[in-house]
## 1
Amino acid sequence: MRIGKGRITAAEVARRAGVSQPTVSLILTRNPKARVAPETRERVLRIAAEIGYRPNRLAQALVARRSFAIGVIVPGFDNPFYARVLSGAEKVAAEAGYAVLLCEMGALDVLQHLNALRDRQIDGVILAGIAASTLPAAALDDLNVVLINQPSTRFASVGGDSLKAGTMAAAHLLGFGHRRLAFIGPASSIPAFRFRERGFVQALRAAGVSMPGELVVRADASIAGGLAAMRRLLALRERPTAVFCANDLVALGAHKACGAAGVLLPRDLSILGCDDIEMTTLVTPELSTIALPQRELGARAVRLLLRQIEEGPRETPPAQVLPPRLVVRGSTGPVAIPGAAS
Amino acid sequence: MRIGKGRITAAEVARRAGVSQPTVSLILTRNPKARVAPETRERVLRIAAEIGYRPNRLAQALVARRSFAIGVIVPGFDNPFYARVLSGAEKVAAEAGYAVLLCEMGALDVLQHLNALRDRQIDGVILAGIAASTLPAAALDDLNVVLINQPSTRFASVGGDSLKAGTMAAAHLLGFGHRRLAFIGPASSIPAFRFRERGFVQALRAAGVSMPGELVVRADASIAGGLAAMRRLLALRERPTAVFCANDLVALGAHKACGAAGVLLPRDLSILGCDDIEMTTLVTPELSTIALPQRELGARAVRLLLRQIEEGPRETPPAQVLPPRLVVRGSTGPVAIPGAAS
DNA sequence: TTGTAGGCGTTATCAC
DNA sequence: GTGATAACGCCTACAA
């Protein structure tokens, strides 16, 4: 084992400085009420620096009964959305001296991951892309939790305004004159998707536009899902003229299906995504979308979590909701003039 | 604080079972040489299960002098490549009961991250996309290390055969009749990129094809980098007929530049990437590439690391190299017949 | 077969 | 001002 062999302990520093070990600890923690002789402090600090003493955070954790680590649980990285969220989260956590324990669903399920995190005395958990409501009630007991992209009365949360995203999508497409609109999205319990759909449907209804059942297509929140779903839509006798997708991956899959079928965007069909991941600018035409600040979500989630850890939970859990932003690129446009076929 | 309040300890189990705490420990660790009365074991196990006892892994770590956690350090998630590697790594680690501490470069540099990991008594570290040779010699001392995609005499490593990837790229493009070939890649010290370039150049040279300096373009290993680089190539008096890119992101950027410039792939130009990330199938035509098994790299890296942790380092560090695989899609093709312009 | 003693590296609370 | 002493929760001897 190469590990943990000759690590320098506070006791070692104490020995060399000719003081007791607790004194070293007292000085090193810079405790305000540490009333130590200046020359002692000097000497201890010098020696500690010389021999490169670094406190064992595990030992600190044991006595402090907290680990200075947080867990982040995500469904998977196939969706770059979570990669970005994670990136923002890691940055803030690292700067604050917290470690990020990464948990991806798949090998272990959420509950197992939560248990593993508990066993490590995790200080808090961030849940992204996983519906807290599908978990057993006790699963999150006694944990500091921040939810991403799902409002909750029980837990703190930060997310984009999914309902509004749906509304904006509807407004954008209606504004182009579309009246036969479709939606592609998962039937999953993930709140963000449900709210996007609901916002979209409500806005359509408010505008007096109805969406027949055949135009709501269920699909995995993935490229493959979007592709399959769009194929179904294209096979319809009467196609939609515009499609809002639950997220960009789905939209990109739909985009691809159109390319394969020779359907020209946005002339024959408009496609609108949601999230604004990098891939959106890769395709031709580039994908219009409703942008969510992904890294910012991760960053804020951690800040919220750290505050909760350090100040204790609030009576009423804070909920930050960030405004979505419409990004018009090339995949959406006005409805084609009938009969003006090229 | 919601944390660590009423956690059940082994002592508590012992009290209820009417045995001593070490006995509980003895039974729970399922130590082979634990010769305990069957009924005692029975009772302890039952009570432990009843009150939901779970050992504190931090305390275990303290005495075991290891944390059952590994660190993974990556440059960033902007490149889905690392997301996939991470995904593979996390899966194996989680199944083995190890935690994954995620470190992204940026907020903290590698050295700071390494220190933070050391302080947490990390059992080992996986380095991806970061040249170990650029680190101070002592930075990785006394650590179990596995490098991804960079061979090393000092550390264990797992990676694709980058040199061969370059060779295969050359063979593929030469096979289509291309003789004016370009390379786009970073000037970075990341070994994988250097080897891909070297393999490519060497294979060309071996085939008697030279690559003038103007056809080797330096660019960030990103979409933006590839885009800018391809613009430069397209501005050349005499354009290349085929381009090999250091990775898929660069290739996608190049792909995009061609789309914008009206250069038709693969008729006017062939583009070949490397890695095989999901995005490659999103563009039209889909990107041909040299595939590397990304999740597998992550998974193997962890397995190698765990073995090293559990069995101690080998005299000669193991190096697994996985064969790259050519994936021909639509972005590469035969050189256009001169004069046969459409 | 089981309990007692000691220690892992800290921090916190006291006497001195 | 400083140094014992006692946790934190667990594990590994060794005694009983």
## 2
Amino acid sequence: MPKIVDEQTREATRRRIIHEAAREFARLGFDQASINVIAEQAGIGKGTIYLYFENKRELFLAMLRFIAQSQLTAIRSALAQDGSLDTRLELLFRAFVQLAEEESDSFNVYMSALYGVNRAFQAEATRLLRDYSAVIALVLEEARARGEITFQDVDATALMILSLTESFILSARVLGQSKQILLLQAKKTARFILQGLTAEQ
Amino acid sequence: MPKIVDEQTREATRRRIIHEAAREFARLGFDQASINVIAEQAGIGKGTIYLYFENKRELFLAMLRFIAQSQLTAIRSALAQDGSLDTRLELLFRAFVQLAEEESDSFNVYMSALYGVNRAFQAEATRLLRDYSAVIALVLEEARARGEITFQDVDATALMILSLTESFILSARVLGQSKQILLLQAKKTARFILQGLTAEQ
Amino acid sequence: MPKIVDEQTREATRRRIIHEAAREFARLGFDQASINVIAEQAGIGKGTIYLYFENKRELFLAMLRFIAQSQLTAIRSALAQDGSLDTRLELLFRAFVQLAEEESDSFNVYMSALYGVNRAFQAEATRLLRDYSAVIALVLEEARARGEITFQDVDATALMILSLTESFILSARVLGQSKQILLLQAKKTARFILQGLTAEQ
Amino acid sequence: MPKIVDEQTREATRRRIIHEAAREFARLGFDQASINVIAEQAGIGKGTIYLYFENKRELFLAMLRFIAQSQLTAIRSALAQDGSLDTRLELLFRAFVQLAEEESDSFNVYMSALYGVNRAFQAEATRLLRDYSAVIALVLEEARARGEITFQDVDATALMILSLTESFILSARVLGQSKQILLLQAKKTARFILQGLTAEQ
DNA sequence: GATGAATGAGGCTTCATTCAT
DNA sequence: GATGAATGAAGCCTCATTCAT
């Protein structure tokens, strides 16, 4: 029964492919990225990729989902501890800065799928975006329950916070700001958002 | 003066190519877009494009610059009239909503170049982003001169405002909100930003 | 208007491709034959073939139809002159021997499409087979009108004659008989068929 | 005697592979047929096939030989009993109709190898064809010994009879005739061939 | 200047075959 | 012996680019 041999090995290879795929897709985009190169980087044969993923598109989507899961986990754990909305928004911001820095490939490729023109992946990216948004919505609901804040549409507000947070980081990148500088702005940013939300009422 | 007539014809053809390129690139992205289709839509021969642009990449960049110029013009004219910073931020927001709606192809393709993964285009898009940012910086400087507001880094602040404005529109799209709904939020958004800025100090 | 330039050149190229395709398909069969090699043999670029034929399959079918037309023409002209059924069957046989010899690639590939297992082409080959059969049916009808022969189902009889004629030639090939020997058997074969038909009544 | 048991098991597996190979090759032809599918259908691992056959080509040839043996056996037993040449030709025809119906996979794949385009298999198929032919030659010799018929080249005549018989069946297939209809024509066909042979003298 | 037929590099994908377990 | 995961050669096809007309 050689099949059962390596459930772990299989999963490890899958991870390695996804990891290299993220690098390559982040570097070149979906179309320019080469399955061949991904295989080489992952240290496996060209054909082996097709034992793990149906085709290039499915590999990309699997990678996208993997990225989203891993980022979601990071975000959830950042928001796990209790605290005021202000504090938690700051933690959220820090978590994103961390992701953008440490998993910059993943961050890039995800942003690209979301804001890029390739409609094929926008649908999936949007679906994942809502997962992110849901985590923030939860935090908002708790803050509302505690009377910290009021708002009309929790989903819309959550999405806006997410969008703003990403927006901060993206523009910081354009400015060439380092992670350190960005982290220093965490508190200010949280307050910015909070103030903004209050102003909306 | 047949030279001028030819010059005009040439410029007209150039515009037509760029216009169709924007449509095609917005629809399919850089790689999936086809030179062939662009030529057909522009009503010219495939080879003719290469009399106007060195290659696909240069066509894309030329298109990007054209879009940026045209959007800049729209933004400048929106901010032309005097007024409080609050009012002008509202106008800025309205101008972007307008662009995103009426020139959605251009807006898409520009966002994609900016947040997309293709570094080659990111560099150029970033350069253009700074042009946008400069317009906003000017407005900010005027407001500071009038004592309406204070801030440390005018460029960073301008970039942030730009980034936030785009961010609002992008997230509205994800939510599927119409232009009408977005325009209704113009005033609130302006106040959001202004409050946020104040909080930052 | 460079498009109109060469309607003839285009047709010539098309012919050359089909000719080389027949050689290659006859040599290796549909799957083993390489578009690349066909292009090389035809002295054109790999991609050029796709300007003339949608894909490999369509090239094969076009070739099949071309072969059928050309063979049909040969057969029709062989049966053009009047004469007794006996004479005309002999002429038919000679025409097939000629085809099998001079256009052996075409003959091979057609037989292969007809009797091979590749269902994809059997349908088309069968359709063409009926065209052949129709020519023979015409000859039979004329013979019947002249009272030379009687039979029940003209189509079935025609098909049988065709099938037998091909069968003779195929088995002669297996025996390694030359064209000369085969031609010597023309008269005997015609009589064989005629006797056989009579026996059927 | 565990050796014999193993030998039997081995032979049984070999048979099963050949059987499924025939199904698959008959369905899709040599190139389109998949070793993978054959292994699955045979209920063994993909690699196991290579313990029984050197490669795909050898499997095909082995299958061809197996089919030929099994068809030869059927034909021999059909011609086993004494009788007039007329009767025996009828029996031969019936045997072939039976084979074409009951072992249509085998029949198809054999015809395809014989008339198909792949020279590699044609050589082997021709060799087998001569085995068939030899059985018929034996019948002819007996008939000649009894003074029923005369002919010059017994091998050529035998091959022709075989070829014609197959030809009848193949054209009946094209016409879409059922086995029943074909069997009804057995007597007529035998007479057709006999008459034809007589005419040849 | 304009054209589009021709080109061929490049890429995804398949699948017979190998070999470590 | 049996297995099937891994391999990589091979092939179809696309499409940006060239260039003769």
## 3
Amino acid sequence: MSTRAAAPTRREQILSEAARLFAARGFHGVGVDEIGAAVGISGPGLYRHFAGKDAMLAELLVGISERLLTGGRHRVAEAAGDPGRVLSSLIDGHIDFALDDRALITLHDRELDRLREADRKLVRQLQRQYVELWVDVVRELHPEVGEAEVRVAVHAVFGLLNSTPHLAALGREAVESLLRRLAHGAFGALSA
Amino acid sequence: MSTRAAAPTRREQILSEAARLFAARGFHGVGVDEIGAAVGISGPGLYRHFAGKDAMLAELLVGISERLLTGGRHRVAEAAGDPGRVLSSLIDGHIDFALDDRALITLHDRELDRLREADRKLVRQLQRQYVELWVDVVRELHPEVGEAEVRVAVHAVFGLLNSTPHLAALGREAVESLLRRLAHGAFGALSA
DNA sequence: AGCCCAGGTTAACGACCGCTAACGGCCCTG
DNA sequence: CAGGGCCGTTAGCGGTCGTTAACCTGGGCT
């Protein structure tokens, strides 16, 4: 046996297909029968694994947010003391994420409002902490720029990096390198 | 009487409210009764003005795409011969649009798949032509960069500029100037 | 004055959808 | 070999939603 990812559990299969379908046609636009069919079971069978359709979306969104934050914190700790390297590492990590999980990226800021109050609050809190990682390091690099401006700039760069769902017949590495340059270029223009 | 916008027709009222609601809760998440209530009539009354819910979305998306393209063409013609000025003008125009009509921006790439085949095709064609305006001028400014890369970069900058739905307690002018700098910074990094 | 039509109303239908109920087979355990 | 979860199935309920039908009304044209 290899050390690579084990066979995905049924739950994981379902989440993966649900993410794809939600991203493609929207949360309300996908029926439970359709999600079931995508994993080879039918409709109500899903309820052996999830409390309901909402629960799938909630687990997806909380999951992404947690992984983003955890990854970001790891990268900040790893390169601590060198803001330039921290920012580069955050950018690289975000690009990897955007390219690996475009469906989740799409859902992340599109279907948040479909969550129950508690879940939505949790996701927003995780998002805010992730943004704060970026804001902190960008402010170190550009101390003369106001915090509100930096925050808007960080969101804008997220928009730039998350634009990958829009096609690209260009090869993974080329897109990575391009996005990296664009993001650095945008941040570089903060002080100019 | 003034030369300013006349009192909006009922159709325009409906479109405006529908755009707001669709952006907030998604096409499938908004009922016709809700749209009707937003303009003071109720549910089925909308059918005196539109063939159906789909028709409202179609008119919204075709309308934005046409306005974007028309505005873009106008700006290209206006500054023809000076690629730098053309690009600046395209950026400024797109920023204005993003700040003035955030609801439409949101819908623009979020609910496109809910359209009928014919409408979707039309919208995509208009979008493609708008992108091409940008690609052409950016290629003039960076002749050494491949076309595919430029196209991805343009989409990425759209993502950056369209990120404005995400808050900003920063004042219109400050956001405008910031986005302008970020977009120029990103494009500037194309050659570096 | 009479009429008509634009622009509303309410009632109701049919389809769909999320979810529950009731049931069954397979595999693992004692 | 008995039994009990785990993981499916199908049937069906209840609610919602887009749309249509049928009806009403007030203002402008003839």
## 4
Amino acid sequence: MASEGAHFYKQVYAVVRRIPRGRVTSYGRIAKMLGRPNAARAVGYALNALGGKREADPPVPWQRVINSQGRISTPNMDGGADLQAALLRAEGVAVSDDLKVDLSVYLWEGLHLIEIDDILSGRA
DNA sequence: TTGTTGACCCAAG
DNA sequence: TCTTGGGCCAACA
């Protein structure tokens, strides 16, 4: 594979970038894709680091990542949660007043670990 | 190396 | 629906 030099962060970002517009997925789901079914916290940590800049280069659609309850867990500070809801709505995702998304409709199943490897190899 | 923290997940009550 | 408690992982001091 493309060397394990790729850190967990990179893998997380790679997967998040593959989330189709108008779809959402959960932290745990991403973690499972990376072969770490219980590393949801680490995923959140990665996105938290990204949140500091709000956008990275290349950009990461972090707004499409929510918790398994279909609820936006982004900190309200800096209007993060509100911004996320707005961005999702702009993509056609229905977000309730409680910042909840119907996963039965918008959930993105995700990729398989083997596909992740392909992406990290640069052949997306 | 240890302890703490975090945009989590799951099961119970 | 909300609150607890336990657990797993990665980054940081």
